[in-house]
Design goal:
Low-confidence stretches: 19-37
Number of helices: 8
Order of helices and strands: HHEHHEEEEEEEHHHHEEE
Strand order of the largest sheet: 2-3-4-7-8
Largest sheet: 5 strands, antiparallel
Shape: globular
Number of strands: 11
Helix content: 25-40%
Radius of gyration: 26 Å
Strand content: 25-35%
Mean pLDDT: 79
Oligomer: single chain
Distance between the termini: 102 Å
Length: about 260
């Protein structure tokens, strides 16, 4: 065998070994990525803290939050400085901070019954269990545990709240999480109503609430156009600003004469 042919054979064997080794490494890397992705998808986010709605302590915390909210809303407030005699009365701006544990207690112990008595929401879907929020770095993290038979999945979104000059409240999503797997919201929300059928219970989809939620998360619609709570004494409380920070939701408000 001449030297040139022998060199070509050695080169072909070496290339074949490289190709096989590369294919094995690629297959191994892909398998690890798949396993890792599955582990992320099946895990709850690090901030997730399950709440037992039947725990009397949770119910007590929810009621105490309701009472505190009523107290803050109805309290007498000092008149705004520099208010002209012909202007409608309004207070100085005031703030209140609400912690995530209190909100989570209320969401799980009181939200289903509140929806049933105050809205057209007929029935809380059996497939939805925990509802959780967390407040960090300008973001409201909101998630829900979805059950389908023996399987369960935590779906969550990172929302950046704002109150615009016209008073409307906006909650566009920056990230959507399937378990711990983060996906940019812009990648999935365009087809969310169709793609979401894999994860969102059919009763919720059928109610039409899911479509409204997707529009809010896409930033196409406001979460609320007039964030005002009317009191029974001729006053109302207007939401001016929302700031999530350090595990609390800081609300800036103003009490006004209607």
């Amino acid at each position: 065998m001449d030297r040139a042919r022998y060199s070509r054979l050695r080169l072909m064997r070496r290339l074949r070994r490289w190709a096989i080794a590369s294919a094995v490494l690629l297959l191994a890397g892909t398998s690890v990525a798949v396993v890792f992705t599955r582990a992320l998808v099946r895990s709850a986010p690090p901030w997730w803290r399950s709440v037992d709605a039947q725990d009397p302590r949770v119910a007590d915390l929810a009621v105490r939050l309701e009472n505190a909210v009523v107290t803050h809303l109805t309290s007498a407030r000092p008149t705004a400085s520099g208010l002209a005699a012909d202007e409608p009365w309004r207070s100085e701006d005031w703030s209140v901070a609400i912690g995530a544990p209190e909100v989570n207690a209320w969401l799980n112990a009181r939200l289903p019954s509140w929806l049933a008595s105050n809205t057209d929401f007929d029935q809380w879907p059996d497939e939805l269990d925990d509802v959780q929020v967390e407040f960090r770095d300008g973001l409201v993290r909101v998630g829900v545990l979805v059950r389908a038979g023996a399987a369960q999945q935590v779906l969550s979104a990172d929302l950046r709240p704002s109150v615009r000059p016209d008073g409307s409240v906006w909650l566009p999503a920056e990230w959507i999480h399937i378990g711990r797997l983060p996906v940019p919201a812009s990648w999935v929300l365009g087809d969310a109503e169709e793609d979401g059928r894999e994860y969102i219970p059919e009763p919720l989809l059928a109610s039409g609430d899911a479509g409204d939620m997707f529009e809010v998360f896409e930033g196409l619609a406001a979460a609320g156009t007039e964030p005002i709570v009317s009191l029974g004494d001729g006053r109302q409380v207007r939401l001016l600003d929302v700031e999530p920070r350090d595990g609390r939701l800081v609300l800036t408000l103003r009490t006004e004469r209607r």
